Amino acid sequence: MSAHPRTLATPAGTLIIYSDRATACQVAGDRMGSAVREARAKRGRAVLGLATGSTPILVYKRLVEQVQAGELSLEATSTYNLDEYYPISPLDSHSYHAFMHQHLLEQIGLPPHQTHILDGTVPEAFVTAHCAEFERWIQADGGLDLQLLGIGRNGHIGFNEPMDLSVEQALKLPTRLMPLHPVTLADAAADFGGQPDLVPQRALTMGIATILAARSILILAFGAAKATAVAQAIEGPITASVPASLLQTVASRVTWLVDEAASAELNKC
Ligand code: GLP
Q1: Which pLDDT tens digit goes with each residue over 165-178?
Q2: DSSP state string for 119-167
Q3: Could you identify the atom of ligand 1 that is nearest to the CA of residue 205?
Q4: Ligand 1 centroid to residue 159 C-alpha, Å
Q5: How far is ligand 1, taken at its centre, from the CA of residue 44, in Å?
Q6: Hey, what CATH topology would domain 7-229+245-259 get?
Q7: Which residues, judged by CB distance below 6 Å to any ligand atom, belong to the binding site of ligand 1?
Q8: Is the pLDDT of residue 1 over 50?
Q9: Staple partner for 35: which of 51, 146, 186, 218, CB 3.0–4.6 Å?
């Protein structure tokens, strides 16, 4: 029987393998709290990049616990979310606005001006300007201190789907509107009452360049369904067809927190 957690140096960053996802999520929540404290001590404010999906739910629970216990203050802290479906109303229960309010924002009472989520109601003619404005807000806040990520079964990060681009082109991608990949649409259908027709076909997503500029990146992956994507991202070639493999270009700033099942296809484990 192996001891847990196990820590390995990989081409895509530090990999920590946990026997259970609850512990991994607790560690992720604690690291986010530490990132806030350190950034505020260093430059007077902190900026967190947040993710949605089933993976980070327990991370937010841990963050809420710290705030409610008075161990963590989110004063002078801003948050920026990775993505949002398009088009979608923030009042739609399937929106990432609704997700964030349910799992984090309501419990910690973060004032609206401290939280930023891409707007799925922006008219299409203004999407480019809206995305550019989102980038400017992050810059004006001093950049992301920590970006939390999940990973799609197809290796996507945020909604940066597998792309037929050179690595050089992919690394420059800004926040933008993206068509969703069939695998993503199929996976998202479960959240839309099992009805694929209800899933928006596109989404707004923080860009690859925006994500990789974060001062630290915490990526979580749990369950056997993620094992292939994790192995390709960590041990495969750096390619835009597996967007998470682009994390290899900033490996010194990346930590992977995974469970046994998600690490099962890694050769070194
Ligand atoms: C969605 C999100 C991603 C997330 C992925 C995995 O596509 N846009 O940011 O990483 O789902 O979701 P889950 O954590 O539910 O497996």
Answers
A1: 999 999 999 999 99
A2: -TTS-GGGHHHHHHHHHHHHHHTT--SEEEE---TTS-BTTB---SS-H
A3: 8
A4: 8
A5: 31
A6: Rossmann fold (3.40.50)
A7: 51-55, 82-83, 150-152, 158-159, 184
A8: no
A9: 146
